[in-house]
């Protein structure tokens, strides 16, 4: 079985190091995972005033999440938390009340920063948010990637073999986690 994985990049920056990491992850992942980016950058700021009629960009965003079997969050840490744009996207997906797109949707969290703790604090906060959104999360392995210049090329090639192996193992574990989630609970249940 092939599983579709939608990935959300927490950064809107053109030269985002987290985008490089996301591309690298798609390159080292098991072949039975199929990837698509679910973009967040064109979403307006969420308000429940939109609940009665979502704008097209937000409906498309929710449909994109509905269309995938699992979600991978690749996020920077901004001021020891997740970027506002990513939180905004999650808020859109979680609403209207009763139509939370993350319910029962398996997820995993990863991120990179030039700093030594490699987005650890942001990832913990993101895990809290995803818990509330009822997404079954891969608990381990955790992945805090310290970005050094040239570690990952724009094409997603990882230049350090031990990092490449770590990322390959991480994606292999995510694949196994997705299989376990859907073995316990069929996709159409
Ligand atoms: C940062 N940066 C940062 N890094 C970190 O490890 N912990 C932090 O709390 C912060 N805070 C922070 C706030 C803001 C507003 C910015 C713009 C940056 C540095 C950050 O890790 C660096 O800019 C990365 O390049 C961000 O990842 P992307 O956006 O390039 O994927």
TrEMBL record:
<dbReference type="InterPro" id="IPR050712">
    <property type="entry name" value="NAD(P)H-dep_reductase"/>
</dbReference>
<dbReference type="InterPro" id="IPR005025">
    <property type="entry name" value="FMN_Rdtase-like_dom"/>
</dbReference>
<dbReference type="InterPro" id="IPR029039">
    <property type="entry name" value="Flavoprotein-like_sf"/>
</dbReference>
<dbReference type="Pfam" id="PF03358">
    <property type="entry name" value="FMN_red"/>
</dbReference>
<dbReference type="GO" id="GO:0010181">
    <property type="term" value="F:FMN binding"/>
</dbReference>
<dbReference type="GO" id="GO:0016491">
    <property type="term" value="F:oxidoreductase activity"/>
</dbReference>
<dbReference type="GO" id="GO:0005829">
    <property type="term" value="C:cytosol"/>
</dbReference>
<protein>
    <submittedName>
        <fullName>NAD(P)H-dependent oxidoreductase</fullName>
    </submittedName>
</protein>
<feature type="domain" description="NADPH-dependent FMN reductase-like">
    <location>
        <begin position="4"/>
        <end position="146"/>
    </location>
</feature>
């Amino acid at each position: 079985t092939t599983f579709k994985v939608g990935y959300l990049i927490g950064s809107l920056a053109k030269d985002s190091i987290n985008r490089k990491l996301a591309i690298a992850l798609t390159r080292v992942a098991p072949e039975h995972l199929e990837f698509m980016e679910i973009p967040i950058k064109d979403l307006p700021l969420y308000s429940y005033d939109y609940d009665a009629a979502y704008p097209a960009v937000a409906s498309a965003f929710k449909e994109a999440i509905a269309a995938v079997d699992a979600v991978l969050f690749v996020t920077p840490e901004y001021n020891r938390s997740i970027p506002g744009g990513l939180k905004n996207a999650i808020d859109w997906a979680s609403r209207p009340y009763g139509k939370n797109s993350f319910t029962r949707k398996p997820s995993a969290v990863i991120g990179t920063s030039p700093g030594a703790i490699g987005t650890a604090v942001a990832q913990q906060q993101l895990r809290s948010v995803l818990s509330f959104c009822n997404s079954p999360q891969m608990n381990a392995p955790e992945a805090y990637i310290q970005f050094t210049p040239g570690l990952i090329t724009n094409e997603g090639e990882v230049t350090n073999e031990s990092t490449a192996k770590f990322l390959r193992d991480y994606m292999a574990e995510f694949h196994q986690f997705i299989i376990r989630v859907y073995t316990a609970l069929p996709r159409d249940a």
